[in-house]
Amino acid sequence: MNPALQGLITILVGVGGCVGYFYFSNQILDKVIFPAKGPKAGDNINRANQVRPWLFLFPAIFALGLYLGYPVFETLRLSLTDRTQGGAFVGLANYNQMMAEPKFWEAIRNNMLWLIVVPAASTGFGLLVAQLTDRISWGNIAKSLIFMPMAISFVGASVIFKLIYDARPADTPQIGILNAIWMQFDGGFGSLFVLQLLPTIVLLGFAGIVGYTTFLLVNPIIDREGRRAVPFIPLRLIGALLGVWLVWMSLSSLVGVWTAQPPYGEPQQWLTLPFWNNFFLMVVLIWIQTGFAMVILSAALRGIPEETIEAAIIDGANPFQIFFKIKIPQIMGTIVVVWTTITITVLKVFDIVFAMTNGQWETQVLANYMYDKLFRANDWGVGSASAMVIMLLVTPILVWNVYNARKEMR
Amino acid sequence: MSDTVGTKSALSWAVHLSVAALVLLWLFPTVGLLISSFRTADQISASGWWASLSTSEQVIQVRTGGRDAARQEDGVFVVEGNILTDAEDAPGAVELVSYGVSSRAVSAYEIGETAEFGDGETLTLNADGTYLYTSVEEPGRRGQRVFVTALLPPDFTTQNYQTVLFSGTGQDNMAKAFFNTLTVVIPATIIPILIAAFAAYALAWMEFPGRALLIAAVVGLLVVPLQLALIPLLQLHNAVGIGKGYLGVWLAHTGFGLPLAIYLLRNYMVGLPRDIIENARVDGATDFQIFVRIILPLSFPALASFAIFQFLWTWNDLLVALVFLIDATGETTVMTRQIVELLGTRGGNWEILATAAFVSISVPLAVFFAMQRYLVRGLLAGSVK
């Protein structure tokens, strides 16, 4: 059958079936099972109204349970069995096998990098654009253009960025913009400025910001003069450890910036440079997600009460103080929401890695690792185990979201 | 907040400039792809796409007339003609800068200067492309090779789109994949809306035990990665006989789209005025009537938001199609899949790749710009607060 015809029939059957189901099930309930007449009319109406919500909900609950609920448990079960032994229960053998693979740890390391860099960069850029476009006349056009990549598929974006990273032999014209720029560097003052001084400033700035945040986290624990209870001590300590690690990382990479001998004049295959290629892949997702962050944060900025800002201006605050001390604290909740939403997207990132490097050159991530295991190695046990790892990483956000949603509903 | 006295103009200039810079940075990649899709393969490899917007200096290879065009004068062979118009693939009227006769010195001579090379050969090239070539020996059949540095005006072609949409063969032709994608997208967008709308109404306006729990479950399922569902559902589809095909992918997209649909629609429906619904109840309307006559029309903005989300998501999806749709024959391939294959096999053919990618992203872009208002509204309502 022609797929278009099949599609049309499916739409008709699907839509007609849904409408028919809802209509007739309501009719049967009201007319046949609990008719609203006779001696027990009142009771029947009440009973019908007790059943009706479940009629409305049944298709959705059924689909959700079958397509999202059941797989969670089935995947858990599969991860504990071995397909080659006829589905025998093997305990944690699949997990052990997975842990022994270097590719898995590479995927974990890369995923952690993605989890730190992409949400931070997207939220940061989004906040920057939202604030800058807030009061300018052509702000809506600018926002619309930065938002545009949201409509582009990960695969389309991969093609777009592959063109940017393209490399040609040294004596032919470069058609990738990155290499075209790279070929301009020759080790002179320009290179010193762009490739060494600027990164140094950026790294020092990053270390400074992280260090200050760490200090803010730890300070209430050390300095307890007020005798006030300090909330979230374990969380604060974990955050502080992470902060110290980030500061150490950024300071140690300073050494690299000054000791490296960049290969000037040679076009680079950007996607094959181990470690750095991860960042070239992340740029794609940042490019897409910034628009999302911007839209939500822009609405949050608009929602800030005008009086707080006016009061700050009267008190003599400069624009930066207003932004960091008045606006940011008021939209902190939204920033967290944006951050966690992007985190979820990052955990599921598959298409970009699949299309651009397919996990070669040390760019593997969990989702692609899982796809490899499931459909190339046909190893459902380890594949399911890695899917469970993704689920495990999502769980804190899931719990947090449910907790917030319930709080909001009360 | 640039109203602080004295700093206003400098700061506002900085703001305008940095926004402009950011917008350009964000547009740059897409524009590159768009422009590349309108260039021929030769143009793409001859220069970066950014050079194609302005008149650019390029070296082109042309040939003088050969043995057949030569006449003998005073013991030397002489060929005259116009290098820019004579040959079949000649570049036409362009402005010449310099020329050369060896690939090692492509711009050795000025225009109008006479080049002497080889065993008594001379060549004079004029600004209008006319040349005079003399040789003591009889010239070869294909004539003398000349490297001309010329100023080429911007030049674009729609040939790539012709190839990708109509005339291309095999992987180069996206027409089939385009319709396959459409076939996946339309039912996968419509069906979840309907199911979700009923469920959302029940969750928003009907009283029953366990409602809060169900809402919490929907919020939880919102973030469950669909990676978990791949193997169990594929097994299930194989077990009930659906296998890999359109039906499977429609069902899968419906299932995966439902949490967001229910969440968005419920949030919207809860905000509808209670009076309308209670008045209708008092007037004797059943829940079914209230839903169809009142709630659905009033919820149009939320329905539109979700429809756009689901459309973009299913159109751009690769993973679900790979797992649930595309079988070994590849007959049902979708555009994203075909582009990934092109990336593997035709990684260097940027004219085909860029055009194929642009065909695939043009539809979502059109939807995006046409219905951006609803998309933004949906995003604001859909992010868990």
From TrEMBL, chain A:
Domain ABC transmembrane type-1: 108-401
A GO-annotated cellular component: plasma membrane
Subcellular location as annotated: Cell membrane
GO annotation (BP), single: transmembrane transport
SUPFAM superfamilies hit by this protein: MetI-like
Subcellular location, principal: membrane
TM ranges: 6-24, 54-73, 112-133, 145-165, 193-218, 238-259, 279-301, 331-356, 380-403
Alphabetical list of InterPro entries matching this protein: MetI-like, MetI-like_sf, UgpAE/MalFG_permease
Topology with respect to the bilayer: Multi-pass membrane protein
Keywords assigned by UniProt, alphabetized: Cell membrane, Membrane, Transmembrane, Transmembrane helix, Transport
Family statement drawn from the similarity comment of this UniProt entry: Belongs to the binding-protein-dependent transport system permease family.
PANTHER family, per database record: BLL4140 PROTEIN, DIACETYLCHITOBIOSE UPTAKE SYSTEM PERMEASE PROTEIN DASB
This protein's name: Sugar ABC transporter permease
Organism: Oceaniradius stylonematis
Biological classification of the source: Bacteria, Pseudomonadati, Pseudomonadota, Alphaproteobacteria, Hyphomicrobiales
UniProtKB/TrEMBL annotation, chain B:
InterPro entries linked: MetI-like, MetI-like_sf
UniProt source species: Oceaniradius stylonematis
Domain of life, source organism: Bacteria
ABC transmembrane type-1 domain residues: 178-371
Pfam families: BPD_transp_1 (PF00528)
Residues that span the membrane, as ranges: 13-35, 184-206, 212-234, 246-265, 290-312, 352-371
Gene Ontology biological process terms in this record: transmembrane transport
Membrane topology: Multi-pass membrane protein
Family: Belongs to the binding-protein-dependent transport system permease family.
Protein name from the UniProt record: Carbohydrate ABC transporter permease
Subcellular location: Cell membrane
GO cellular component, one term: plasma membrane
